[in-house]
Amino acid sequence: MQTSGQLLSRWFRDPVFLLALAAGLIAFIVQSGELGTSDTQYRLQATHALWTSDPIVSPNDYPSFGVRGRGGKLQSWFGIGQSMLMLPSDVIGTWIEKLPIFANYYGNDPNVRNIFVGFTVNIFVTVLTALVCFRFLRLLLFDISQSVAGTLALLLLTTHLHYTQNMQENNYICLLTLAGFCFQYEWVYTGSRRALAIGSAALGLNLLTRLTTGLDLVVASLFILLVLCFKSDGRRSLWVQCRAYATIAFPIYLLFGCFDRLYQFYRFGSFFNTYIGLVTIEQKMRDPSLPTNYPFETPFHVGFFGALFTPEKSIFLFDPLLILTILLAVVYWKRFSIPVKAYIIAASLMLLAYLSFYARYTVWAGDFAWGDRYVSTAAELAALLAVPLLLRHRNQLANRGLARGVWGAGIAIILYAAVAQFASLAFWLSLEEYQFETLGHPTFVVGLRLENIAAFALGKMDAWGLSNHAMTEDQWDYAHLTTWNFLPFLLKRVGEAPAWVVNLLYVVWAGALAALAATLLRLRKVLASLNQA
To answer: Both 394 and 484 in a single domain?
Structure first.
């Protein structure tokens, strides 16, 4: 029987354990203690209503949020998915918040319940995402080093990092969609009905979070179909496998679709409408001047090309690994394996579908957000293979000059991606939105964020004329805009927590940074030893 020391030593030689540990530490370090946006706060209110007598929508929030449902009761706009995810943490966090030790802090912001929910849920989702991503990359036959690099790239070099700090639905949707791809693909090669059921349940569960994730479900099915077409030994074999897929997957999709419709009926008395239609009716009653096609009145070309090329929302600026994916596909396409080709085609179509769907939406870019939050998850998944493919095909060109050029371009894109994603964490996401009110449009947001970081670090916000642009009458907003967006700094800025608590959190935060650095170094050493074996 292994001793605890032997077991610990074994864990620290396991790249999967070290990857999961690194993911957890990343999520821990980037937390601000806030949920990030009012949307998530509203969803947490719905969570609280599931097990307490609190209303699902506070009357004080209406009409800026909420819509009248059955019997005139105020109902949330959103699906129930993320609210269910937060339920265990909300129950425990509410109990912790009422402990005597927090008696003098109860009700302050960031409050104890939000801090606990944000930390636990984000760490849980991030660790699971890392494990599922690693598993999927290994199934695509990337080696261990390439799979680890690809997983860390998703966590650190895409907008996934920003949404680890600002808890919109994005990362939860990313986890479920990635799990759907992973486990359904595992079924293709192992025939495991259990894997197919898990993947289908993950995709179905997404429907409870955001109904548009039906696009993810369709594209995942397309990915499996493309793989089956290449793998099958003829039409009959393909038909048998497709029927086996449909026999398990479709009933699961139908079950979750029914759950969503039942929740819709419970709220609004209809199985067939959506909250968008009801909100539209109420908005037009309050403002008859709204366009007849509201909330899809934006010209298609504005939203579609805006998401691609505007300096404030371009997916190529906020998820630059997309550029690397395109570059690698152009140069190495013939060398890609069939499953890799199938995934890139499917993920690209998913991104195109999201761009097209939200192009006409009234707030096509997601309003207050880092980048275009409606399509950022699809962009992350489309860019998922960039780093593993760069490593796999580094030396596979006869033209050494071209190979070095692709490698150099890849490193440059990765460095920019790191700068953009780390910069997204520095301040609360609303900072640049307030600055737009006086700076105007268009504005290169990533560049403005870097300027804000430099100005704040050097104490030059006033001298550089940036502080006036960030002024707001809301004192809560102002406190959050004028400090680094990490929990110890935010608690110190708000000034309500005891000094000893703030100082202790600084020590814990610095210790977590050191632990992350040590974990990554250990992971690198373990991978090097595996490569030499």
So the answer is: no
